[in-house]
Amino acid sequence: MKNIGKILLLLCLLTACGTKEDEHLSVYRNMDDLNGKKVAILTGCFQEEILEKQYPEVEVLRIDNAADMVQALVTKRCEAIVLDDYMVNYHSHSAKGIVPLEEPFVVAEMGVCFAKGPDTQLLDMFNAFLRQIKADGTYDEMYDRWMYHAHEAEMPHIPLSTDGKPLRVATCSTAPPLDFVKNGKLVGLEVEIITRFASSIGRPIIWSDMNFSSIIPAIVRGTHDIVVAGINITPQRQESVNFSDPHILCHTLVAVRQENAVGYALGAIDRVDATSFYDKVKDSIQRNIIDEDRYLMIWGGLKLTAMIALLACLFGTLFGGVICWMRMSRHTPLRRVASFYINLMRGTPVLVLLMIMFYVVFAGTSVDAVVVSIITFSMNFSAYVSEMFRSSIRSIDKGQTEAGIALGFTPARTFIHIVMPQAFKHVLPVYKGELISLVKMTSVVGYIAVQDLTKVSDIIRSRTFDALFPLIMVAILYFILSWIFAAILDFIGKKVG
Model pTM? Predict the structure, then answer.
């Protein structure tokens, strides 16, 4: 563990080191200067089509959340980012050294998404609520709190009903100051609006924190009632969802690194003050683990990851035994069904399978995303386990079975007392490797709004803009978790052996 700590500290030191400034800096005044350069945008955003039509020479880099876009700009993986003005203002406060170009890229309205269909009762209620809070000044108070003072703002206490049908709301917590995580809780302008709305109609809320590219499919498939994540109203999106009345008018800006801005080249913009080497390291640890009790988020993500992996392992092993029995059955239909299932599970990427289960199979149901994750990984794990069991059983000489029967054992007792213990020793090393793979595969559950270790690292990075520290920390935690599971299997193997 001391070595792990040293490695983590070394990596923190490396990421804290600044890079030398380029001797010849490019200066960008407008979008025309960015032709042939990499420009990052949010995956699924409407600005993508505008970029492709108006600036075909720009190389578009699609990224899933705004925090990673800012990090890509700071680390020089792109030359500019396209974000709404409120996000640029928020991120420029946290990630020093980025400035917007003078002219807005495009002006657009934002709304709250509701399911498409003839039943617009919930949409009508929300629009009436929105008009009311704008008329009585509540909206202006919220707008000032989050759009201008988000870094200091606290979510007011809004009592919610514990009875009635829950309001299922999907959001993307990497869209500050509208939707983000602070002190382990979802906060922001849109979060407060929806919370006040739910309180006004007497319904509890179930929040789902998802990737931006997944939130509109969530409401199209009927898994959620409302979607908020700073979503611009566009004709294309209106074909799939119903939008509320606009609640924000935003200007999309193009932001570049400070040294590439005109003001910097002319000396009008102050250069970012250099911080000492050790202060950066200390600040990185403080911001990523201590501030806002982020260690509690990390602990929660670790427990959830361990639970999903453990339950998927148990259920997958049991189901894998059933599939193995079918695969070795004398009945041809059972063998064919088992063979088809195994080929299907092993030939389908686990992320695709997870999305199918969540957005198709369990669409419109109240099944929790964690349960969907456990079911999906159990199915995937069972296919591999069944083949492990089958190959290990077949590796045992048939003479063992014949000897057991000759001694008066029934076929079932022969298998349990003679064949299975030998097969267990053969299968254990392969099973251990597959279990470790299962633990690592659970890192994709964030796509369906499960706040596991990987999702927690995304949330932390969206607040601190420190890419290396959260990722290395999570990688070490995955390693420790895998090591614990492997050690447990080794212990069981020694006891059985």
Answer: 0.74
